[in-house]
Write a structure and sequence with these properties.
The complex is a heterodimer of chains A (about 325) and B (about 100). Chain A contains 13 helices and two strands, in the order ααααααααααββααα. Chain A is mostly helical and about 325 residues long. In chain A, helix 6 packs antiparallel against helix 7, helix 6 packs parallel to helix 8 and helix 6 runs antiparallel to helix 10. Chain A is globular, with a radius of gyration of 22 Å. Chain B is α+β, with helices and mostly antiparallel strands. In chain B, strands 2-1-3 form a three-stranded antiparallel sheet. Chain B has one domain: Roll (Ubiquitin-like (UB roll)). Chain B is built from three helices and three strands; from the N terminus they run αββαβα. In chain B, strand 1 and strand 2 form a beta hairpin. Classes of the chains: A mainly alpha (about 325), B alpha+beta (about 100). The interface between A and B is medium-sized, with 34 and 26 residues.
Chain lengths: ~325, ~100
């Protein structure tokens, strides 16, 4: 998902042994569905895994503004423009809630941003695909945000309090994102043949990358035992992916669109839609930096950060000047 | 890029509290980074009140908050568990008297 690079957890203790009594107390607290708060004792592996997951999630929200931002000035109507602008603004907000939650684990936001800009930290593979037409904005809202909601709802019950609280806020806002996307798709599919083709083309390009958002198949992802035990994660990648497929395929058929998967069939016995094999080599390539837009996304993020440096410096200098003047006045009054 | 990011002065951290329409007290909702109190208020408005969640915002420098130590949890809060007489249901009132 937005944290798919996480599928390898950090080594539990980095070689050091942790107090077994504390570990037991920690696990008992997690098992009883009590929240772990920033000042509580926690195993080092738990802290590092969460820090990585939450910061990756934040990076994904921030980078996710780029593909959609690409269409703000070209939205087909004022209604669509206002909706898209509000959605992109939400993504910035979600990034900030998440950075704030991650900071409670002991890393400064500046350092997390640095990790993103230097390529040390990952973000979701999905944002490395281009938005070539207006229909892509519909497809992203419907599919990408739809997939995100599937993944994020269980995260509202994550054992780490600040992350769970951030996810509750995010989920409330995310549902507008998916509905505005689907509405765009409905409008295009009820439009001219050319508009419907545009919607079909967007689905064709986004379907497989969206399925990859849930991360490697359970057979490949060897490290989920710890995150399950710690109640960071509640469902496996494949379970969430299946849930998403079952919810989404009928929505696509309602639109009168076809999915780019000749093997897609309904298995009446289990009640599930079955897809063909996902091309995991593409997923690995995109995560490794070889997706269609990786360089452009990071380049933009770096440019924006560098261009804003003087603003941050000026704001700090002004605050310092004001504080100094205030101290001088207070001193003179004594 | 890296050198610049590493040498940049960190922005101060502020805790954000918002009060909603229903007359409840200000409630902690998260934090923001900002150079001063005015900008912290503006950032808090943009980040935490995009859908009418609030009629009032407080921002407080994070370093100004003193928090209880989780290790003292039992010491501080456990004693109340053994004081049921602080609750109304501890006392009986004759049924004939009705609701009190």
């Amino acid at each position: 998902m937005y944290t798919q690079g996480l599928n390898s957890t950090e080594a539990a203790t980095g070689g050091r042994s942790e107090d077994p009594a504390r570990l037991l107390r920690f696990q008992a607290k997690v098992d009883s569905e009590d929240k772990i708060e920033p000042n509580d004792w926690m195993p080092e592996g738990y802290r590092r895994t969460l820090l990585r997951q939450i910061s990756q999630h934040a990076h994904s929200e921030v980078i996710g503004m780029q593909p959609e931002g690409n269409w703000i000035t070209r939205a087909p109507s004022l209604r669509r423009k206002a909706g898209l602008l509000a959605k992109v603004q939400d993504e910035a907000g979600h990034g900030l809630y998440l950075y704030a939650a991650a900071e409670t684990l002991g890393m400064a936001r500046e350092e997390m941003v640095d990790q993103l800009l230097t390529g040390k930290a990952k973000y979701s593979s999905i944002f490395n695909y281009p938005t070539l037409s207006w229909a892509d904005i519909g497809a992203i809202g419907w599919l990408v945000d739809g997939a995100a909601i599937m993944n994020q709802i269980p995260l509202c019950r994550c054992s780490f309090g600040p992350y769970a609280r951030a996810m509750i806020r995010i989920c409330k806002e995310e549902s507008f994102h998916q509905r505005q996307g689907y509405e765009i798709m409905v409008t295009l599919c009820n439009g001219t043949a050319a508009q419907k083709n545009m919607a079909q083309d967007a689905l064709n390009r986004f379907w497989w990358p969206v399925l990859m958002m849930f991360g490697p198949s359970d057979k490949e992802s060897l490290h989920s035992a710890d995150t399950m035990k710690w109640k960071i994660k509640r469902f496996s990648n494949d379970d969430l992916r299946q849930k998403f497929i079952d919810a989404t395929v009928p929505q696509g058929h309602y639109l009168g669109l076809t999915f780019p998967d000749p093997d897609l069939t309904f298995d009446a016995a289990s009640g599930h839609w079955r897809t063909g094999e996902i091309d995991w080599s593409e997923f690995k390539r995109v995560l490794a930096g070889e997706g269609p837009c990786n360089r452009q996304r990071i380049g933009r993020a770096r440019g924006g950060h560098a261009d804003g440096a003087w603003v941050r410096a000026a704001a700090l200098a002004y605050a310092e000047k004001r504080a100094r003047a205030q101290r001088a006045t207070a001193h003179a009054a004594e | 890029m890296r050198a610049e990011a590493m040498t940049e002065t960190p922005m101060p951290l502020w805790e954000v509290f918002i009060r909603n329409r229903s007359g409840m007290p200000h409630k902690h909702c998260g934090s923001v980074h900002a150079a001063d109190a005015t900008m912290a208020l503006q950032a808090a408005r943009d980040v935490y009140t995009r859908r009418g969640e609030s009629v009032s915002i407080w921002v407080i420098p994070s370093h100004a908050i003193t928090a209880s130590d989780p290790g003292d949890k039992d010491l501080l809060f456990e004693p109340t568990a053994s004081k049921p007489y602080r609750h109304p249901t501890f006392y009986t009132v004759p049924d004939e008297v009705g609701h009190m």
